[in-house]
């Protein structure tokens, strides 16, 4: 009824414009399904590394398309695009396939105009080395996308059908984003000379703005130079941020649909609203794994990440990764950094020199014996009240006052220069390890430090569901001043400024997975610390100069580590294994039994 009332309010000219737009959308969509000339190649399924792009408009009938879609490989995701009669396909195999809830957008390359300004802090180029391929896969994994076999990049580079571009930091050479493009003329002799964009991904830790737009534009410019008439892309219907960017660049929605197979990878797309729990990412990753195994989930308080898991008569309450399995005594030990330190030190774990201000110790003497110190409350979490690398007496006193706002009892520790290493220990085994890097921004010659921080903070919040932001407070201002700048200064293009010394993710820090590279002594020390505290799930924090070397000092133990921060490592899988061993897949259970037998 509301639609009818809106139509009645429209002028004849407005109705004519709307009707013309709808007709154009339908015609543009149909041009992809029924080319203006006969298609010479049939039943085309193009290998894209992450799966196959199946061109539905090259199939004579639904039966042939269904048979090809049934050949989807394990751990891959095929997409049937430009399907002429999706309703017929779904009617014949409703248990196997579903209509992808994505919109198709098209860019008319004849009318496309390149951007006037080129970014100077990064550049776009073709993928060219094994390191490029590895970095691309890291970004895809970070974004929850399917990685691509390394050999694929080289087997398709010369054919020209598949184009892979990467965004490279102009100073560090780090790969910050990637995109894949498909030339339809080369793929199936498309008489309409179309093209399409896939797998646009930007690292959530990238400090530069405009990476996604630049990758998209460069791909469009390459296809336009080849003579392509348009470039299509598929985007989830509720990805408002991406859709706004596409429409800004001149993309228009067209009447094209995609069909996918009902598999574990696509689960969130066809199960509907049951997955929308309101939980934060740290709780949601556990709930998702539980639901995949058929474990009943009851949300007790989404705002606090509290839920109950039930399986086979066993019920366990969880607050994110903290469970009923962690005792109240263990929780109190982790809450008090002094007690934690004593227990792990007794177990043979290396700890830094420490001064407990509650004992009336001499601050001046401690400073003389150590070049710089860490000031932190004896109780607290998420990096609150911690100041790192303080060497001036007055600055120490100011940091102590800030720490006392979090907890009256304050500690001073020798500042061990190095990197923050988090090791996730579940059931006395290290399942993930990652370097946690402090928040930083990179100058562009235009924005002030404050504006750069606010911009980077928004990107971190968007990438983490609001869990990671960079606070603009006294500690941030202290770090900026140490860099020789003020908050309202405008740093030159390319200058890197560390705006926090702590690497906590809740204060804007970033994370780099190093699970396969950690020195065995660090793994052994983390397990010793977890056993000393007697905690089933924990995040053990070390300071290390090099995670591949044996030297370290213990910092603290976290009783509720964020498992979502360590994807693609199987933290949620091992967590659910601990709670419900009988829910483990048979292959995983056998691997664990074999490992237990050899230890």
The percent range for strand residues is 15-25%
Tally of DSSP helical segments: 20
Write down the oligomeric state.
single chain
The total of beta strands comes to 27
Basic shape: globular
Largest sheet: 7 strands, mixed
Q: Average pLDDT, to the nearest integer?
A: 85
Structural class: alpha+beta
Helix content: 25-40%
Question: Terminal Cα separation, in Å?
Answer: 69 Å
Radius of gyration: 27 Å
Order of strands side by side in the largest beta sheet? 6-7-8-9-10-5-11
Low-confidence stretches: 1-7
Structure, explained:
The chain is an alpha+beta fold and 599 residues long. The protein contains 20 helices and 27 strands. The strands form six sheets. It has a seven-stranded mixed β-sheet, sandwiched between helices. Strands 1-2-3-12-4 form a five-stranded mixed β-sheet, with helices on one face. The protein has a five-stranded antiparallel β-sheet with strand order 25-22-21-26-27. A hairpin with a 2-residue loop joins β21 and β22. α11 (281-292) crosses α19 (571-579). The chain is globular. Residues 1-7 have low confidence and may be disordered.
What key phrases describe this protein's structure?
599 residues; 20 helices; single chain; alpha+beta; seven-stranded mixed β-sheet; 24% strand; globular; five-stranded mixed β-sheet; 35% helix; 27 strands
